[in-house]
Amino acid sequence: MSKIKVNDISLDYEDYGSGKVLLMLHGLGSTKKDWDAQVPFFSKNFRVIAVDLRGHGNSTKPQDAYGVPLMTEDIKCFLDALGIKKATLIGFSMGGAVAFDFAVKHPEYLDNLVIVNSGPDFNDMGQIGEDLLNGRTKFLETKGLNALAKEISYNMFPEASQVDLRNEFEERCKQNDYNAYYKSFTTLMNWGLGKKLKEIKTRTLVVASDMDYTPVSFKEEYVSRLPNATLVVIKNSRHGAVIDQPEAFNNVLLNFLNDE
Fold it and tell me: The AB hydrolase-1 domain covers which part of the protein (predicted)?
């Protein structure tokens, strides 16, 4: 692990391999360990960088400075600090929101854009979004972070065969700082691209799980508004496709990268 100071914070990251750069952005309340099944696979042929976003893992946890736009600028400054001019940005869940925001604001840095079980408008998801914001906020305030970690982990990995994945993810979630998680979550739910989505001309892969929180139709709708996007659905997968179906996900991503 290495640390680098950017945008008034320190970001913790891992950097493996050589070649074209794949920069991987994890989900809310997690860390760069979301990508443990991808790093060894892709670092054989690419330079793979996985980073802890602000407020997460071993990166700085500010008191008040949170939100997708700040995370986007962190990533731009991070690439600049490493002297990286071009990268494929791969974002899972909250990391997908950061990747979307980055694609609008800094497209000149991108070779490709990869979005995994995410969306461009967390502030405009209808009833699903309202229920998520209200339900999770109330759960946090009344039952605490440890109980939420258990709930989220079970929902992501409910099968008997997934007990090890569930326990590992739960332990990761429990390590969160309460304030950092709360503010990361609430600012995420206030973020959205709106009409700016159609400005993204970068070649884009959207990966959806067939049993994600939001249906495949949700991803189909916003993919239809992207000028240069392809949607692939991974079967027998819930929200954490990069974790619960790593072989299928890795093959989908490798095919996309090889088709350039």
Answer: 21-142
User: 197 CB contacts (<8 Å, ≥6 apart)?
Assistant: 100, 104, 120, 121, 222, 225, 226
Does the pLDDT value for residue 22 go beyond 80?
A: yes
94 within a domain of the structure (yes/no): yes
Residues 78 and 59: beta-carbon distance below 8 Å: no
Q: At 37, which CATH number?
A: 3.40.50.1820
User: Could you give the residue ranges of the DSSP H alpha helices within the chain?
Assistant: 39-42, 68-81, 94-105, 127-143, 145-156, 163-174, 178-188, 216-223, 241-244, 246-258
The boundaries of the domain holding residue 81 are 2-122+193-258
For residue 132, the model assigns a pLDDT of: 87
End-to-end CA distance of the chain: 30
- Separation between Cα atoms, residue 202 and residue 51, nearest integer Å: 22
Closest C-alpha to 230, from 199, 197, 253: 253
Looking up tokens 């054989």 gives 44
Reported as a pLDDT band with limits 50, 70 and 90, residue 137 is very high
Residue 85: other Cβ atoms inside 10 A: 11
127 beta partners: none
| pLDDT at site 244 | 98
Q: How many H helices and E strands in the chain?
A: 10, 8
Least confident of 41-45, 86-90, 136-140, 197-201: 136-140
Domains in the chain, number: 1
pLDDT above 80 (res 1): no
